[in-house]
Specification:
Layout (H helix, E strand, L loop, with lengths): L2 H8 L5 H14 L5 H9 L18 E8 L2 E3 L4 H11 L2 E7 L3 H11 L3 H8 L6 E5 L2 E6 L2 E4 L4 E4 L2 E5 L3 E6 L7 H8 L2 H4 L3 H36 L4 H19 L1 H11 L8 H95 L14 H22 L4
Parallel strand pairs: 3-9
Antiparallel strand pairs: 1-2, 1-3, 4-5, 5-8, 6-7, 8-9
Helix pairs in contact: 1-12, 9-10, 9-12, 10-12, 11-12, 12-13
């Protein structure tokens, strides 16, 4: 188990309250004020919220609303009661909203003094991960992610978080992350909750970064499948590499700015006297975030290499296909040549047969003429008729033979 896993499991285990309790006792022994105590001291000097602003929010927008005092959850019925309990019990409120509109945020912004620019950003989705300070209030944009296995797609959500001296407001613009498990784990660790709103911020950050792990596993599995497809010569693998590459880039855009968020948080540790244990836990989450970025960089480089290898494999396959086509074309040309030669040889034989047929036709014709049984054929009674017929047949045959020789038919 790595350092991050050990630290992340620290507050999730059932004995987490005991660990935090020991840390709290050591701090109390040294007369070191806690962030919650400082927040209560500052809260005593805060002015009352304007009486003209009514606490209104759509029931569908408020997904959870609780006040935490001395590590214990209190469930108010309305937002007005939330504000009253925060002041009376000197605790902090955690209001969870899901895709609210301006009316849903008005009373919350007025009560907790949220900056108008931050409220504008919080109502608009598609924000880049960032951290902005407005006095003692932090406005943080986070981009959770999840891996959808059936479609093999990385979905990146959006979460906006306001953290003040006595409040936490979370605004979700997507289905992820589900913050109910975060609340349950915190409520099972009252000593951690006593550290104030910063503990909620840590828990939310830890949950989001933890949720990156299954996304990394899903992407790694996809890369393994693509690697197999590359060497099997799958023609569709190039498109899949491009698609997964875009998802890795989008995922990386959601994670990389978190390092700046943690750097901004660290810069305020001393100024705002953040609990030392929370500082350590936040640094561990930051280390985990850095490792996620490193893995994403490795994924991107691996996909680029696979794209290069795939191009080489495709080129090799194309060359082999061209070689096979060339060999087939050469074989076809050879067959055509053989057929042509056979046709020429056949033509030569036909010419020879035709020539001999013509040569033999002449004596056959003469013999046929004089073989007819007619009485009135003057040549039949010649003394030289027979020799003359022979000479005629031989002469015509010799003449045709020479003619055929001259025409190269023989």
């Amino acid at each position: 188990m790595g350092m991050f896993d050990k630290v992340s499991a620290w507050w999730r285990e059932r004995d987490a309250p005991e660990v935090v309790s020991r840390l709290t006792r050591r701090r109390s022994a040294a007369d070191e004020p806690s962030p919650a105590a400082m927040a209560r001291a500052r809260l005593a000097h805060l002015p009352e919220p304007p009486a003209t602003v009514e606490a209104h929010a759509d029931d569908d927008a408020v997904v959870d609303n609780a006040v935490y005092a001395d590590g214990t959850r209190i469930d108010p019925e309305t937002l007005e009661q939330t504000y009253e309990l925060v002041r009376e019990r000197h605790g902090f409120g955690w209001i969870g909203l899901y895709r609210p509109d301006r009316a849903d945020v008005e009373s919350i912004a007025a009560e907790f003094g949220l900056h108008e620019l931050a409220v504008e950003d919080a109502l608009e989705a598609h924000q880049r991960p960032k951290l902005e300070r407005y006095g003692d209030t932090l406005f943080i944009v986070l981009r959770p992610a999840r891996y959808v296995d059936p479609t093999e797609v990385v979905e990146v959500g959006e979460l906006h978080v306001f953290v003040g001296r006595d409040f936490v407001v979370t605004i979700r613009h997507s289905e992820t992350p589900d913050l109910r498990p975060v609340r349950r784990r915190l409520e099972e660790s009252p000593d951690l909750l006593r550290l104030g709103p910063e503990s909620v911020l840590y828990a939310v950050l830890d949950q989001i970064v933890d949720d990156y792990a299954p996304v990394l596993r899903g992407v790694a599995d996809d890369i393994d499948e693509i690697e197999t497809q590359v060497f099997e010569g799958d023609a569709e693998v190039s498109r899949r590499i491009y698609q997964l590459g875009r998802e890795v880039i989008e995922f990386r855009r959601a994670v990389v700015p978190l390092t700046d968020v943690f750097a901004a948080l660290r810069s305020g540790f001393d100024k705002y006297k953040v609990d030392l244990e929370l500082q350590r836990l936040l640094r561990d989450v930051e280390d985990h975030t850095v490792r996620v970025v490193e893995r994403l960089d490795a994924f991107r480089e691996l996909l680029n290499n696979m794209l290069t290898v795939n191009a080489a494999v495709v080129g090799q396959r194309q060359n082999e296909e061209m070689r096979r086509l060339t060999e087939a074309s050469l074989a076809q040309n050879e067959e055509m040549r053989r057929l042509s030669e056979a046709s020429l040889a056949q033509n030569e034989e036909v010419k020879k047969i035709s020539a001999w047929a013509a040569i033999l036709f002449a004596p056959t014709l003469v013999g046929t003429v004089y073989g007819m049984n007619f009485d009135h054929m003057p040549e039949l009674h010649w003394v030289v008729g027979y020799p003359l017929a022979l000479v005629l047949m031989v002469g015509v045959s010799v003449g045709l033979h020479r003619f055929m020789k001259w025409r190269r038919w023989l």
